[in-house]
Structure of thiopurine S-methyltransferase:
Amino acid sequence: GAQKDRAVTEAEWLRKWETGNIGFHKERGHPLLQKYLDVLLNGRSGLRIFFPLCGKAVEMKWLADMGHSVVGVEVSEQALKEFFAEHKLPYCEEPVPEISGAKRFQSTSGNISLYCCSIYDLSSSIIGKFDGVWDRGALVAVNPCDRQRYVSLMITLLEKNAAYLLVTVSYDPNKHKGPPFYVPESEVKSLFG
Ligand code: SAH
């Protein structure tokens, strides 16, 4: 469709963070996570939950406070530092031996681990597999040409009984250039198979 060839570079994302052009960030968290929390957890406790393209999503703090362990990935180091600062969470920072240039920010309490690198640098051998995924502003932020690669990677990160919550947006792709990009339901189905 209209957005097929559109691409946002990593440098452009970093610039959005530097200039505070982050209208996507929801200070009070996303109402759909509250609404569908039971679907994500399905009565289970102590889950490993993945936040692809996490930004400084406050939902990471919510789930960690409920006793789950949270892993996120984000290219902007500024976003990750703001996350820890805004929640007054002490953290430590270390290199990731498997990925050159990547850093891992881990809360001192240990249950929030955020990777500063591209999601395409990760694999289940580095971050393991997950019981749940909160995909908001992630599939819809990925460049249209990278969607299948992104989804194929996400599938390799899922445990057998994983729950995957996906938020998309519906609008006329001829009227806005995105991101967020328009990913129709039919495409979601074919991407995930
Ligand atoms: N999910 C978050 C942020 C959405 S905006 C929320 O709900 O608030 C998309 C984020 O993805 C931006 O912060 C951007 O810096 C980051 N990003 C873009 N491409 C990425 C990539 N390839 N790997 C990791 N993070 C990426």
Remarks:
- The mean pLDDT is 97.
- Residues 10-22+31-192 form a domain with the Rossmann fold fold (CATH 3.40.50.150).
- The chain has one domain: 10-22+31-192.
